[in-house]
Structures are given as structure tokens and as C-alpha cells.
Amino acid sequence: MTPGWFVTGTDTGIGKSTVSCLLLQSLHRQAGLKTLGMKPVATGAVPIAALSARDSATSQALAARWPEWALACAAHSVHEDVLHLLSGSSVLLEAVPEDLTLDSINPYAFLPAIAPHLAARAVGVTLEFSRVAQALARLQALAEVVVVEGAGGLRVPLGAPGMGEMADLCRCLQLPLLLVVGIRLGCINHALLTLESIRARGLVVTGWIGNMLDARQAALQETFHTLQERLTVPCLGLVPELDGTQRAALYAGAAQEVVLKAGQAGCAGWALGANPTPRTLLEVLDIQAMLARQPAEGLRTQV
Known about the structure:
Layout: E1 4-9, H1 16-31, E2 35-38, E3 41-43, E4 46-47, H2 48-54, H3 56-65, H4 67-72, E5 77-78, H5 80-88, H6 102-105, E6 108-110, H7 116-122, H8 129-140, E7 145-149, H9 166-173, E8 177-183, H10 187-200, E9 205-212, H11 220-230, E10 235-239, H12 244-251, H13 262-268, H14 287-292, E11 296-299
Parallel strand pairs: 1-7, 1-8, 2-7, 3-6, 8-9, 9-10
Antiparallel strand pairs: 4-5
Helix pairs in contact: 1-5, 2-3
């Protein structure tokens, strides 16, 4: 079993969190796997107390099962994406292991919503890959699959020139990549350049997942099919554009309760030959194909 995936994307704000949260729930409910989410670096963190007020039901549920969350609410800050990953992690559905810490799930959290290396520089912090790798190892001991969500895109700097980028962190963690493509104008160029960069660095990529950002875009289906034709790794799903109620259910860990509307199901079906009309959001990712494409001999061989 591959110990997880690193979720990267073509840009910031294109759906890495949406896909990561959905992936955690799908792997658990479709494949029966114990899952945990991880966000190595997050910027734009806010006090946990503020997040708790915004999403009290989720925070209260976490506090009931995880004493550290209740304690952290008083003093710590965290990114909203981390709350979503926690909600989607099956390990947190019951009593939480005593050795699970918030620091393992999110080793670096910064308040300014700016690039990670700038946020770290502002407070005199050096991002250490070894710290992230050690945190990942702790999570892997508690779960069968860890989904690691990156920040920004693959080439986001994580330090001064020569100190590494997000791609270098991927290599350090030795996880295969899943590439999230936000389907919008310009995404073809962004996706091809990102995959080219992944290949140039010898990183392993399992496939790509589309995330529909604007269902009103012209030539939407043609754009998606162009990506299918030109990206040389398989498409493993297409997440339709979600309304506010559907997104809230996903982020609360209830993707199985999100029933897709006809147009959404048809859109998601473009990527699923075996299941062209998924009924719920939980069915839009091809989990079996994803698992089947796990590297058989580690991560040194490009797939």
C-alpha cells in the first residue's frame, strides 16, 4: 500500500482542498481505508476560536473526540483547509489516538495570506523538510493512507533561492503526486506546464483530477477533452462545480450525502467511462484506478 499521495495543483485557489477532502472520504468509504489529511505549510491561518465560531458543529465534534483540539482552541491558529482535512479524515471519526497532534497535521501555519517563503521570512522561520517528513511518518503510523495537500503550485518557493520549492518537498516525502487542474480559461497551458515540470524533476504522478470552477465557461466539455488528449497521465475524476450547501456538506465530512443534480452528474461523467452518471459526490473519483496505479517498486521509477 502506498502510504499516501501529495496533492498539488496548477495554481492557488483551484480546488486542492476540495479534492483532498473528497479523496479522504472516498478512500475510506469506497476502499475501507483509514485516512488522515496533512497540510505541511499553510498561510492565511486564523485563530481556531474564530474558525470554531464559523463552523461550530465541526469544531465541537472534533473537540468531543480529540482533547487537543479543545485545548488548541484557546491559543492556536490554523488554516481553514486544515479544518476541512480533519473533517474528512476517517481516523477522527472515533476516539482520536493519543499521539495524534495538530503539529503533525500542520507543521507550519502562518498568519499572513502570502507565499510560504515570505510568510516564514516575516517571522524568522526556516521551513525544514525534515520536520515535515517526521510529521508525515507519525501520521503514517496511525493511518493506512495519508493525503498531503500542498500550498499553491509545484514551483512555490519554500525558502531563499536554492533552499527548495514545493517540488523538492514532494521529493523529500517520497509520495506520488495527484495533479488538480482547475477547469477554467487558461487551464490547458497551466496543466501542461505543471506536468512538464513534474516530469523534468523525475517525480511520480498517479494522474490528474479536474475541478470545475465555472460551469458557464464556453467550450467547457471541449476544454476538458483537450486536457484528456494532451496530458499523458490518466484523468481520475472530475469534480463538478458545487453550490454552497454541497460544499458545506463535503467540508463537514458528508460527501456521501451530496446528491448531484443532473447537470453535475453529467459533467462528472465525462471522466468516468465505467460510471458515466455518478449519483453522489462520493462517486466522482475513480478510486479503484487510483489504487491500481500505485507504484509497485517505490517512487524511483517514473510512471
